[in-house]
Amino acid sequence: MGATTATPTDGVTGNVCPPGSYCPAQSISPIPCPPRTFSSAVGATNDTTCTPCTAGMYCPSVNLTAPAGFCAPGFYCPSMSLVPDPAEYSCPAGSYCSGGNSAPTPCPAGSYQDQSQQAACKSCPARYYCLNNTVTPQLCPAGGYCPVNSTSGTKFKCPAGTFSNVTGLANSSECAQCDPGKSCQGTGNLAPVQDCDAGYYCVLGASSPMPTDGVTGDICPAGAYCLQGSAAPTYCPAGFFTNQTGNAGMSLLPASMQRGY
């Protein structure tokens, strides 16, 4: 009242429109920006300067010059949120909201979340694997194993010389060694791959049908023969002999027919 100019600034007869409000022509007082908005502008003339509340934050009252704060952990706040913990925007299972979220963040591979309204994800447990956005961990498939935080059911495979026909293994030591007389070539085997070759024997954990390491198996020694699928050499019976290695069967001569024997 009593203003002598259309743009008073004396604070008595009038003043410039303050932040958090707007003043159309002929205003007698500032009009507050409504809840869910804010304005830092000075001298605003219309409500278009009332900015929608920033996503990830909330604006609970009128006349705000900035958002009141960040969205609460366990919730997310789209633009124009009124409260820090809007019930309709509770963080869903399979994701997390650590605070100040404008949208849920999917749990990364190797983690999971089976509850809603959570601020963090859980580590994927051993014997299971978790893809992105996992709610329920998946059991590790046969042929492999899954340590803690596994991101795939096929990343860790039972090594050569082993196999597994059961699910839910946690480490390679739980893979079964290849059966005696059998070989397990390659990785990720569900069962032994094939018999040990004739002329060789496979004790346990052979990764080749023709092992020569002396531990998982070896070439058939002199004085013995090894049929296909042998777990140990079969030694020549009385009346027979051989001084060669790698014999595959009883194609041997009687001792009495051998010169010098």
In the predicted model, the low-confidence regions spanning at least 5 consecutive residues are: 1-6, 9-13, 255-261
Q: What is the overall silhouette? A: rod-shaped
Largest sheet: 2 strands, antiparallel
Count of beta strands: 20
Return the structural class: mainly beta
> Total number of helical segments?
0
Overall mean confidence score, pLDDT: 91
Strand fraction = 15-25%
Helix content: under 10%
Order of H and E elements = EEEEEEEEEEEEEEEEEEEE
Cα-to-Cα separation, first versus last residue:
136 Å
Strand order of the largest sheet: 1-2
Overview of this protein structure:
- The protein is rod-shaped, with a radius of gyration of 39 Å.
- It has no helices and 20 strands.
- 0% of the residues lie in helices and 16% in strands.
- The chain starts with 20 loop residues before the first strand and ends in a 26-residue tail after the last strand.
- A two-stranded antiparallel sheet has the order 1-2. Strands 3-4 form a two-stranded antiparallel ribbon.
- By secondary structure, the chain is mainly beta.
- Strand 19 (224-225) and strand 20 (234-235) form a beta hairpin.
